[in-house]
Design a protein that fits this description.
alpha/beta, Aminopeptidase, 2 domains, 9 helices, about 15% strand
């Protein structure tokens, strides 16, 4: 639908970077106004310094739809998501770390040698350890915590647009609530703090989280064991089956996002096929994260809308 395409493009054009407090506050004000126009109550909730945007009443809701609205820093190595192929996922992580370790160790050794034999053994070791540590931390920051990235269309403008689309399509009935989490890119801190502040939601509410749903030919769901005991899960599974979603237990599909802070969490992403890895999510955390299908968002929102209307 044209409205979905316009929403996705407006977020991408007006708020491409959502890292600083000012950038995130400007986006939240814009998103809150849209939700209020759709008839919902909206509040900003500061949980341990992380500001989450809460739409509706999550304490009463049967299901909460979530996404993180902060954006990642640019990485010089793609954060390649390989949800169902653990050996290749660990190999990819290993391939990232080993060169950094090798360079750091070599740098420390050179620094120790440069001191010469006049320096004591203790001093040489301290210098070697200091140079090694500084090099490793510097390389880590360069690799994974680079400058601000203006290209975040899939991660996670797509999930943010899906949450807002769903909120605008559903009435304020009390069945559903929506949360845009802060600081997922800093270690899921916004959702972790929210879950700590709302233990009943953490343990007893179905939470459907959308992260990187824009670039892929199949949706994939990573389902926590506790989610299957939720009364609404059967209807959710039926709705996801209607759009040909791949449904895996969380133990077999790794999706490192906000749903992991909730006992009844379900993570949704979109994947592309791969001969080696079965399914993968490409380009995120790089300048090439410029692809997000509004059709994906429309399809997913329609399925989840049908699910809410059924429960």
């Amino acid at each position: 639908m044209r409205a979905v395409q316009d929403l996705l493009n407006e977020i991408n054009d007006r708020f491409p970077v959502r890292n600083s407090d000012e950038q995130k506050a400007a986006f939240r004000a814009w998103a809150a106004e849209r939700a209020r126009k759709a008839g919902h109550t909206v509040r900003e909730e500061n949980n341990e310094g992380h500001v989450n945007l809460v739409i509706g009443d999550p304490d009463r809701a049967e299901v909460i739809f979530t996404a993180h609205c902060d954006t990642p820093r640019r990485s010089f190595q793609p954060n390649l998501m390989l949800p169902v192929c653990a050996p290749l996922r660990y190999a990819y992580m290993f391939a990232n770390v080993v060169p950094m370790l090798a360079i750091s160790i070599f740098g420390g050794w050179l620094a120790q040698r440069a001191l010469g034999e006049d320096a004591s053994r203790f001093v040489r070791r301290i210098v070697m350890l200091g140079v090694y540590t500084a090099l490793y931390l510097g390389l880590f920051l360069l690799l994974f915590r680079g400058p601000a990235n203006r290209h975040n269309k899939n991660d996670n403008t797509s999930g943010t647009a899906a949450v807002l689309t769903l909120a605008e399509r559903l009435p304020a009935s009390g069945k559903a609530a929506w949360i845009l989490f802060d600081d997922e890119e800093k270690g899921k801190k916004g959702s972790k703090a929210f879950a700590a502040a709302h233990p009943e939601i953490k343990t007893g509410t179905l939470v459907v989280n959308m992260d990187c749903v824009g670039n892929g030919t199949r949706f994939l769901a990573s389902v926590a064991e506790g989610a299957r005991s939720d009364p609404a899960f059967a209807a959710l599974e039926k709705a996801l089956a209607g759009i040909d979603t791949l449904v895996y237990p969380a133990a077999k599909a790794s999706m490192n996002s906000d749903q992991r802070n909730f006992d009844r969490g379900v993570g949704l992403c979109a994947c592309l096929p791969s001969r080696l890895a079965k399914w993968y999510v490409p380009r995120i955390h790089t300048v090439r994260d410029t692809v997000a299908s509004w059709e994906n968002i429309d399809t997913l929102a329609a399925a989840l809308e049908g699910f809410v209307r059924e429960i």
